[in-house]
Amino acid sequence: MGRITLDKVEKSFGDVSVIPPLDLTINDGEFVVFVGPSGCGKSTLLRLIAGLEDVSGGVISIDGNDATRVPPAKRGLAMVFQSYALYPHMSVRKNIAFPMRMAGMDKAEQDRRIEGAAAALNLTDYLDRRPGQLSGGQRQRVAIGRAIVREPAAFLFDEPLSNLDAALRHGMRLEISELHERLKTTMIYVTHDQVEAMTMADKIVVLQAGVIEQVGSPLELYHSPQNLFVAGFIGSPKMNFFSGADAAEHDAHTIGIRPEHLTVSTTEGRWKGTVGVAEHLGSDTFIHVHPEGDPAATLTVRVGGEFVASHGDTVHISPLHADRIHRFDAEGLRI
Amino acid sequence: MAPAVFLLLVWMLVPLSMTVWFSLRSYLPLRGGDQGFVGLENFVRFVSSSAFWPSIVTTLMIVGGALLISIVFGILLAILLDQPMWGQGVVRILVIAPFFVMPTVSALVWKNMFMDPVNGLFAHLWRFFGADPVVWLSEMPIFALVVIVSWQWLPFATLILLTAIQSLDGEQMEAAEMDGAGPLSRFFYLTLPHLSRAITIVILIQTIFLLAVFAEIFVTTGGAFGTRTLTYLIYQRVLESQNVGLGSAGGVYAIILANIIALFLMRIVGKNLDR
């Protein structure tokens, strides 16, 4: 129903190569998140799959059929855009009906699907309004509704939540995950927010400069990042890196320890340092420590609950478990 | 009273009240001068003249024709100019250029260079294909005038419509493409509704100026062959017949007509701008 395979797909704009040849398989029913920093080519990759950009080389197949030269409308994919891209002069009902109308679908069937989508997305009361009269979250739901009624082989989401405020974003994240559970349709989701990636994905694809750095489930990426980039990108706050003598002790060029795998003590520990900023979240406290001898560097430590520390205090930090230390070689690859 | 308001009132009220004043008097500069009040006689005579209704029809035909051409071609040109192409800046300036040519000049150029039945470019073209040249200004004078006037106003329409097209959201177009809308559907379902506001503004502004078209008629047909518009009729009454009173009555009719159209258009614009 929605198995998408990319075989040596590449894209360049003029002389600039945005995506070097890349292979990827997305299985039917999977929720795949493309994540990476701005400009890493994740949106371009999504647009290549959608057909909005032409590939410079390689083959895209959908359910085993070569779709490389198939126009976007014929690929059976539905896309939700960052700006929602609703048609402003049409009512919500007409917006949702648009793809079905273009396909020349039977009117009764159109109405049935609109009612279904509206009920599922809490839009029934807003069907006769125009997009301009709706809030951001409602517009987002209309955009999703317009995608659902097509019953596509796969949904493509291009940073759909980046225009919403934090509270709404959290709510919509749950709604999209619920939707995936219910529909069991393949979803490809692009975001720069690693929290969205971690919470929603079955499979995360970490991209940097058009290159896939690692593909794996959220916990695989968390527990065994394949290289320094993935280690630094996945996890919040960021992983702490040590090099030099500290790393040599573990036969590595660089070692990384996540903030939650460090422990802090006022009396003794592996590294001595002074407290910089302490972020109190209530449930956790993030303490930023400047190690002795390298005051410009910062180590982040997560302490459960409340930890009273003020600016300038001397503290000692130690790794919590020896097996939670990630080791990397000189090329930045995991040992 | 604020000085600006005062200036505006003087600017508008003095000519307006003088027109109304003269329209009520029998004023024949070469035949006895100002001969006092005659009541509404000028108004009755102006509309009962055999030239009145044809002049209204001509006016509406020229205004309507020029609007139709400048909007249809304006949309097409705007879409064309919106495409990325080499030398875009220069091409855009060239398209706007006719707007800067004075009406008298452009009408004369059209009359002598294109539409002249002996030496005009069209005449040469027609003869090249073995056809008899069309005597544009006498055989199809209203069409010829509409072409000349449209040529002057097309750049204005194109400019306004181009800026509107440029503000069309690219993601909407892509969404429609993914929704299975072909180029024609995208034009009718997205581009055209998006342009509706700009189109209304073009219609409103152009109508006001097109009602006052004069120079083009003056230098081409001189009002002959049924090209007398209301404006031209007023000119003839005042200057050719030397009847200021009758012409002023015509002027008052023109004001009323323009206001009816303006009111009508403002309501459409108001409706359109609310969205």
Instruction: Tell me the β content of chain B.
Output: under 5%
Q: What is the CATH H-level superfamily of the largest domain in chain A?
A: P-loop containing nucleotide triphosphate hydrolases
Listing every helix as H and every strand as E from the N terminus to the C terminus, the arrangement of chain A reads EEEHEEEHHHEHEHEEHHEHEEEEEEE
Tell me about the biggest sheet of chain B? 2 strands, antiparallel
Strands side by side in the biggest sheet of chain B = 1-2
Sheet with most strands of chain A: 6 strands, mixed
**Average of pLDDT of chain A:** 87
Q: What integer value in Å does the Rg of chain B equal?
A: 23 Å
Number of DSSP E strands of chain A: 18
- Oligomeric grouping of the chains: heterodimer
Name of the CATH class of the largest domain in chain A = Alpha Beta
Please trace the helix and strand order of chain B, writing H or E for each element: HEEHHHHHHHHHHHH
The CATH topology of chain B: MetI-like fold
Give the second-level CATH assignment, the architecture of chain B: Orthogonal Bundle
Give helix % range of chain A. 25-40%
